[in-house]
Design brief:
By secondary structure, the protein is mainly α. It has a single domain, classed as Amino acid/polyamine transporter I, CATH 1.20.1740. The protein is 67% helix and 0% strand. Helix 3 packs parallel to helix 16. It is globular, with a radius of gyration of 30 Å.
């Protein structure tokens, strides 16, 4: 028997002995060995039928959107502005000044910025990364991370649901004030407290004393819900266009209010009170607790919106470290800047009334709808109407941005459920908006002020600590 030479076997040139039968599937022995592992399919044909070997991440992202039906922001600017608009809201101009006022001025500011960096930035990064990685809403992302975290994801949705149930009512109050801003004189001149509680809210004696619907609030709330639905019904691509106006306009309004406030009699005293650090308050645990609480509410963690926005971000633009730092810091700086728009007016009021700034009643919604409106009414005719319109237009746009972001959390959850997953997306949006408009109806009655205050004060704050902590620990 002839043995094949070694050289004949190299390069696949193997020959069988003449008397032996042919080797089965001999052609297999003539191919180059392949790399061990899962075979990689050949590249798909590109335009013109030729294989496109230059596929990049942009194409991969576009194909993924088509395959799973996931919407995306059209560009990074829309994602960024939507995220800033969600964070920068009523918490910055309505809640923050009152807390600064009640907790030591500059002392609260110091505690607030400490927690922006210690809590706000890490928690924002966490929620954003979860959305970017799992490409789902809050419930879907945490459920996919671990079935044990499904409750955490659902809690995000529940917190968002509580908020959107009453938030448009506050926007409605501001819309009523905007309408009355064009009257001369301003209708609340002389008694801002009575105008707010009786003329706007139609407040009864208490939470259980419900007798009628306050029709102006009913109409304003319905209009706010209609606007929310129209913006969201086309998805994030539509909402991304709206934010170019609704996010930039409040900053122009703040700049105008700062410029006017700095020239008011008593304005400089208001700024001094704003920046004055009360050392005793800095040593008070309550100041730090309220500051942490304000960061949670203002940044908007544990409401699911940050996760949702991250899931809609284009992969090529996704950077949870960059955006997770920049956006909370912008939010904190906006609060700080907003203080320069509010406190000069408080100093002006104090000078006109002969009271100290520390003696003003700024509890609840008092800063926005009682104290600040009193300062607006004291301005000269023409100026009063102009700056009143600017102020309440700012409040409305800030509120709309936040409401759209939080409502998107609930709508995304509904789209990802089995019950509504096969429905057309516009129908899901319309059903969710209609349902929560119906849920908000108790807030437009004469007992509505008390319902809004109850949900505002107790519906979110402590639950946000618990849910954010559970999500962070569960991710470790």
């Amino acid at each position: 028997m002839m043995v094949p030479e070694v050289d004949d076997m190299k390069g696949g040139n193997m020959h069988s002995p003449p008397s032996a039968p042919p080797i089965p599937h001999a052609n297999l022995y003539q191919q180059e060995p392949s790399v061990i592992g899962v075979p990689v399919p050949p590249p798909s044909p590109g335009p013109g039928g030729s294989a496109n070997h230059n596929n990049n991440n942009n194409n991969d992202d576009d194909e993924q959107v088509v395959e799973d039906g996931r919407q995306e922001f059209s560009n990074y600017a829309e994602f960024f502005l939507t995220s800033v608009g969600y964070c920068v809201g009523l918490g910055n101009l309505v809640v923050y000044p009152g807390r600064v006022y009640n907790h030591g001025g500059g002392a609260f500011i110091v505690a607030y910025f400490v927690f922006v960096l210690v809590l706000g930035v890490p928690l924002y990064m966490h929620d954003l990364k979860v959305g970017q990685f799992f490409r789902k809403g809050a419930y879907g992302s945490f459920s996919e991370m671990s079935p044990l975290l499904a409750g955490t994801g659902l809690a995000h949705v529940l917190i968002a649901s509580i908020m959107i149930a009453y938030f448009n009512v506050i926007i409605g109050w501001a819309a009523i004030y905007l309408y009355h801003s064009f009257f001369d004189p301003l209708p609340w001149e002389g008694d801002t407290r009575t105008f707010f509680y009786q003329e706007v809210c139609g407040a009864s004696a208490g939470l259980g004393d419900v007798n009628r619907i306050v029709w102006p609030v009913f109409g304003a709330n319905a209009a706010a819900w209609l606007l929310t639905c129209i913006v969201l019904i086309k998805g994030v691509s539509s909402g991304g266009k709206v934010v170019y106006v609704t996010v930039t306009l409040p900053y122009l309004c703040i700049a105008a209010l700062i410029a006017r406030g700095a020239t008011l009699p008593g304005g400089p005293e208001g700024i001094k009170e704003y920046l004055n650090v009360d050392v005793e308050k800095l040593q008070d645990v309550t100041t730090w607790v309220r500051a942490a609480n304000q960061v949670f509410y203002s940044v908007g963690v544990a409401m699911g919106a940050i996760v949702t926005f991250g899931s809609y971000q284009q992969r090529k633009n996704a950077s949870y470290a960059r955006d997770g730092f920049i956006i909370p810091v912008i939010n904190g700086l906006t609060s700080f800047l907003g203080g320069f728009a509010i406190f000069p007016m408080l100093g002006h009021i104090a000078q006109n009334t002969g009271l100290g700034i520390e003696d003003l009643d700024l509890s609840g919604f008092g800063v926005t709808f009682i104290a600040y409106t009193e300062g607006l009414a004291s301005l000269p005719r023409g100026w009063a109407q102009a700056f009143s319109a600017i102020f309440f237009l700012m409040i409305i746009t800030l509120g709309v941005d936040t409401q759209i972001g939080v409502a998107e959390t609930v709508i995304t959850f509904a789209r990802e459920t089995r019950a509504m997953g096969s429905w057309p997306e516009p129908l899901v949006t319309a059903v969710v908006c209609l349902g929560f408009w119906a849920i908000s109806l108790p807030c437009v009655t004469d007992g509505g002020y008390y319902w809004v205050t109850l949900l505002w004060d107790y519906g979110n704050y402590m639950s946000m600590f618990i849910v954010a902590g559970a999500g962070l620990v569960g991710s470790c």
